[in-house]
Amino acid sequence: MQPVVTVAEMRAADAAAPVPEETLVRRAGTAAAVAALRMLGGTYGMRVVVVAGKGNNGADGRVAAGVLRARGARVSVVAPGAAIRDCDLVVDAALGTGLRGAYDAPGVPPGAQVLAVDIPSGVDGDTGAAPGRPMVATRTVTFAAWKPGLLQGDGPRFAGAVEVADIGLGELRAGAALVEDDDVARLVPLRAPRSHKWETAVCVVAGSPGMEGAATLAATGASRAGAGMVRLGLPGSADVPAPGAWPTEAVRFALPARGWGAEVLGVLERCRALVIGPGIGRSEDTVAEIRAVVAAARVPVVVDADALFALGDAATAREIVAGSRPVVVTPHDREYARLLGADPGPDRLDAARRLAAATGAVALVKGSLTAVASPSGEVRLAAAGSPRLATAGTGDVLSGVIGAFCARGMTALDAAALAAHVHGRAASDGRAEGLVAGDLPHLISARLSAALGPGTPPSPHLGG
Known about the structure:
Elements: E1 2-4, H1 7-15, H2 21-40, E2 47-52, H3 56-70, E3 74-78, E4 89-93, E5 113-117, E6 139-143, H4 155-159, E7 161-165, E8 176-178, H5 182-187, E9 201-205, H6 212-224, E10 229-235, E11 251-255, H7 261-267, E12 273-276, H8 284-296, E13 301-303, H9 306-311, H10 314-321, E14 327-329, H11 333-340, H12 348-359, E15 362-365, E16 370-373, E17 379-382, H13 394-407, H14 412-429, H15 440-452
Parallel strand pairs: 2-3, 2-4, 4-5, 5-6, 6-7, 8-17, 9-10, 9-12, 10-11, 12-13, 13-14, 14-15
Antiparallel strand pairs: 1-8, 15-16, 16-17
Helix pairs in contact: 2-3, 6-13, 6-15, 7-8, 13-14, 14-15
């Protein structure tokens, strides 16, 4: 995982750096110049304009200008707001992460590339908000660590390709980390040679008459993410035969429409995780049963969809989830607002931390940047989200994957974050148009197979 630091954390790191400020400026400016040289592919006859402000970001830009001149480029240094004449590259060092308010950047000549220094000027370093008109960077070279504003809000649209340059700040006190592909192999436990199906068993309580698809998607997501056994309970199926195709591998158990909590707790005696909520309904009886099961469960619990409704507000949720086993809540924005009484807002890191602190649960706040926070404030970020996931049922699959990762022995924080990352990566492997939730479990299986070790590719009839 790569560290992600807020503006305040970066300032604290600068203040505690083992070298003087002028040394950091020289290193940062040199790193920017090196990135510029790679973009230009050489300096002979190249024209560079450096937009340099008054602060440290501008100082970085002026150092870069000096290095580029020494390498033979024709370099002009201009103040923010000055017109930019014809050039091959614009180095944006106007403002940096300390922006407050809108910034309207000068126009970029046609055909010129843009290199942003630390963060595109006009983009908030924490939220990624860009109320003005920043330059659209071809590339951003950021120092020491990722900034939240490069990952959320308008940041990704303006930042272009991002590279992190080490400038020798030493150990960072980063409260957040960005999940990478390599973390899947590092953190997802492999099956032991003599493992058996019950060691990674997941209980899924989901669906209701007419909403069987949600239960199927959650159960299949769990199976394809490594659950050795899935016990699938659908409230109401004992009273009304449930139509539709069920996942062949899931072992179903019939539940009445009311009073099913005790039976679920009995099934949990042999399971390692519980997923509850997708398509389960919102009747008073259902709400009461969900609350009772979540409160009494002794294994990690993933609370999704209608089960989030059952938790009520944050204060009620805190009473229900209290206990020694971890609980993961997975709200989209409307569910978040119902729990906390306010929208999550543009800063997903802050939103996840607020919800985790208020409920005592691990909070996964969904979005193009998914933020997962523990009650202690530690954050994992998954930036693999895709518009392809904006289709019915994909969240049900995600809840099943989180449950499987918990059953495999991961911490709830890592299970939720890695699941969100793999879920997003799997979507990118699928159809650009027409991807449906039912495609995801097979794509997730293929992703995990590639990451966790050698083996034969999945057979075509399994969706590989």
